[in-house]
Amino acid sequence: MNETITDIISLINQIDDGSKIAIFKDCSVPMSLGRGLIKRQARNLHLVTVPTGSFLPDMLIGAGCVSTIETAGVSLGEFGLANRFGSAIKKGSVTVLDATCPAIYAGLQASEKGIPFIPLRGLIGSDVLANREDFQIIDNPFEKDDPIAVLPAIQPDFTVFHAPMADQAGNVYLGRQAELKIMAHASKKTFVTVEKIVDFNIMDHEELGSASLSHLYVDGIAVASNGSWPLNLPGHYDYDRKTIQSYANAAKNQETFNSWIDIHLGKELNETG
Amino acid sequence: MNETITDIISLINQIDDGSKIAIFKDCSVPMSLGRGLIKRQARNLHLVTVPTGSFLPDMLIGAGCVSTIETAGVSLGEFGLANRFGSAIKKGSVTVLDATCPAIYAGLQASEKGIPFIPLRGLIGSDVLANREDFQIIDNPFEKDDPIAVLPAIQPDFTVFHAPMADQAGNVYLGRQAELKIMAHASKKTFVTVEKIVDFNIMDHEELGSASLSHLYVDGIAVASNGSWPLNLPGHYDYDRKTIQSYANAAKNQETFNSWIDIHLGKELNETG
Amino acid sequence: MTYATEELLISTIAHLLDGLKHIAVGVLSPIPGSAALLAASRSATIKKVSIIGSMKEPYRLDGAVDLFDCAAQGRIDAFFLSGGQIDGQANVNLTGIGQYPNQDTRWSGAFGSAYLYFLVPKVILFREEHTRRVFVPKVDFISAPGTSAPNVYRPGGPYALVTPLCLFSFNRTRECFRLESIHPGHTVEEVRDNTGFEFDLPASVPETAIPDSQTLQLIRNKVAPIIADPYPDFARKIWGV
Amino acid sequence: MTYATEELLISTIAHLLDGLKHIAVGVLSPIPGSAALLAASRSATIKKVSIIGSMKEPYRLDGAVDLFDCAAQGRIDAFFLSGGQIDGQANVNLTGIGQYPNQDTRWSGAFGSAYLYFLVPKVILFREEHTRRVFVPKVDFISAPGTSAPNVYRPGGPYALVTPLCLFSFNRTRECFRLESIHPGHTVEEVRDNTGFEFDLPASVPETAIPDSQTLQLIRNKVAPIIADPYPDFARKIWGV
């Protein structure tokens, strides 16, 4: 048995306070693992939403796990504003590093390519750029009078996501979410929760292989059944709209958020803990 | 019927003399289309080998179709040196823009991302860099005293390749050759020859979809049965080693090369012309 | 034929998309999405409508990186943006109200705005609320600027602004909006009263063309069943499908 | 047990790979490939051997871009390079002989050398011809430099040079090779006569350890069947498989 295959508690305990963690936007989100981080009272996390965030960042912020969030936007989509996020920003309890979606991707792709920075169009003249001390404008060295933004590489300590399956060798099938490869390549370590571990080698499979992440980039795998609940896992299960709506309602203020978390972490304890 | 689906002669005639053409290294090579370019006596082509080249660039050079080749290397692999390439360089009849494999990829990825240049590690102190007037060294704006090479984006006029199948909408299944996506994204136009055109939508297929190129990036498709012969199409047919060996022997000098081409273009005429 | 306000907006936006090749539509955009589908249903030039977040062919994209790269390659002709605030220079604020960073009201964030707004030739601003709260003299935070200095690489930018009251065009040289037409039942005064920024005004402002019966049939028969997939609630509300 | 010269080279190279995690092997490299497989067969640390061009698990990579990105991420510990010419500063020439660009003899080109040589910590130079034609005082063309100025980002570089006569190490501070051992049946004089560059020499040069019977069994039983897939001719010639 591959030593990268372990249990979810072990993964959660390896994610130290203060870690920079990349999370994918609105599917493949490791909700079980996220609830585990809340349960173990993780602190000072630096979240990188790829490129935007929804429930998990809002929950982690509401639970006091986050000190910095680097994001192109946080929102509950059709369920409305991310109120724990908004409240933390107003209070100043969380530092926000605003970016654009392509800037987050480009920063990760720079890390993936091992280059220290990458140029990107747009941004010039925006207050997004004006408020990012770590973004710069340089002259395109190949064209006269062509200012262009350059962004530093983003290297997370961890990429964490949930996927349909892994194999015994540690290869992970991603499906359509090819961005997860960029995230794993860019990060120091990648932890994955999966619905199941299969007995064949995923990479040997002609069609699954090209939509999979090599074990070379995977540092920890744990089974978490329904690990994206109440969010969806494309091709496997849909959103649990009722639970998401109950969260959106509860998260409007800290007290009702706290009660909601108490109830749902208790559930988690019995299910996966 | 999608208007991008046409015949190979039409594709060949649309590739004007002087075009910058990207060709993938050693599989998915559009040999039928290449022979067609020789037959129509294409001239002054600027080849970009991605990132290296084998038979097709050597053949096109031997047939006088090429004025510039941008490459990380041209070789017949186990069949030896690419002699028409070497001979043209010695004579000075072809301009060579030497690069490294990752530099070719990075240049194409810059074009794919719509950025005018991209930094890349390595190169500094090499005669490769010293001879590329279009490569520069700049200071990493995020780190003191850290020189780094920057390369201009490579935007070919055409990417041409051979693939297992396309559908009626113009989507193309690539298989494992994900680099072909980069090439198509980076190029103004993409022409593809395929073994067959299927009746279902490739993109709708969960497993094929993620290994396919959207019709958005495909400007022309033609059926060319055994279109990579005598090279291989992974998962479909293997190298025709006998024919390749006969080419490698013939290409040692221009006269025997000419005879070989005469024989094999004649064949092509009957097969696909 | 009678029509819903949403159908008028869909029809108005669709006219702006004629002759294009590839239209991309963001999340939470049922009206722009419907407009793009309507335009595609009657146009030979439109090769693809991409609906961000759709997992269905032919509307899906090869991932989000693909979308942004595609725009930078010049392969997206039109896109839609909205804003919590939009000002007279077409600056867009998607980030929040008050003093940044500790804003009184924080919205989501800039998303792809300070990128697509630079690269997509025709960016259509669309907002279903036409008030002085939204259309302000100056946005609190420029998530994406409406205009740029001449040396900034910017093949794209604002093209029009559609609201429930009217259609504005945007003049990139004069850096201001121009009232192009007013929707039936509304007046210039109403537009002025509810718009916090100055705009150009022709001597006589035409009325927005209402959707003809052929257009309404296309919307109801062709567009509604498709848009019902990403937006079931919207389709149910407007068309009962 | 008797052994083939190739088996000695495989065994010698494999010793250099102990304790690593990920070894990548380029095209046309049956001996380095066999050495990597041998090292992996007896090492708990080696997580992956990547053989460029292999389409088979677990040796394949996710494409060539993945290989180069992987190296830049610091995830490849060892790689192999060769050269038409190699000089005493470990400069490698893969491009050709004569005055560039119209060289008298043009080889293939730099491939990934002026990149992987900078980024992979242990680059092992390997050449099956040990002559003054190959090991020259100064290469005609630096496809990839052996050493760099101190401010150049270079976590990687030359580590050793293996030939049919001997094993050299490379001293990055002194920027020169050091003769570490001579293969059985060869002499310092023979190495000197056939090497066009100066190299450091210990007072007494040890003989290269020959492969023991356990090693030979691993090579023949474990390595040979695997390497026969990418290199059938090689495997047939050495092991008759």
Give a short summary of the structure.
The complex is a heterotetramer, with two copies of chain A (273 residues) and two copies of chain C (241 residues). Chain A has ten helices and 13 strands.
Description of the structure:
The complex is a heterotetramer, with 2 copies of chain A (273 residues) and 2 copies of chain C (241 residues). Chain A has 273 residues and is α/β, with parallel strands linked by helices. In chain A, strands 1, 2, 3, 4, 5, 9, 10, 11, 12 and 13 form a 10-stranded mixed β-sheet that branches. In chain A, strands 6-8-7 form a 3-stranded antiparallel β-sheet, covered by helices on one side. In chain A, helix 1 crosses helix 2 and helix 3 crosses helix 4. The longest helix of chain A is centred in the C-terminal third of the chain and has 19 residues. Chain C has a single domain, classed as 3-Layer(aba) Sandwich (Glutaconate Coenzyme A-transferase). In chain C, helix 2 crosses helix 6. The chains are: A alpha/beta (273), C alpha/beta (241). Chains in contact: A-B, A-C, A-D, B-C, B-D. At the B-C interface, helix 5 of B face helix 3 of C.
Unreliably modeled segments of chain C: none
Question: How many structural domains in the coordinates of chain C?
Answer: 1
Shape of chain C: globular
Biggest sheet details of chain A: 10 strands, mixed
Counted by DSSP, the helix tally of chain C is 7
CATH architecture annotation of chain C: 3-Layer(aba) Sandwich
Whole-number mean pLDDT of chain C: 95
Compressed to H and E, one letter per element, the order of chain C equals HEHEHEEEEEHEEEEEHHH
> What structural category arises from helix and sheet content of chain C?
alpha/beta
Largest interface: A-C, 49 and 42 residues
Summing up helix and strand content along with how strands pair, one would put the structural category of chain A as alpha/beta
Total strands of chain A: the figure is 13
Q: What's the shape of chain A?
A: globular
Percent of residues in β-strands of chain A: 15-25%
- What is the ordering of alpha helices and beta strands of chain A? EHEHEHEHEHEHEEEEHEHEEHH
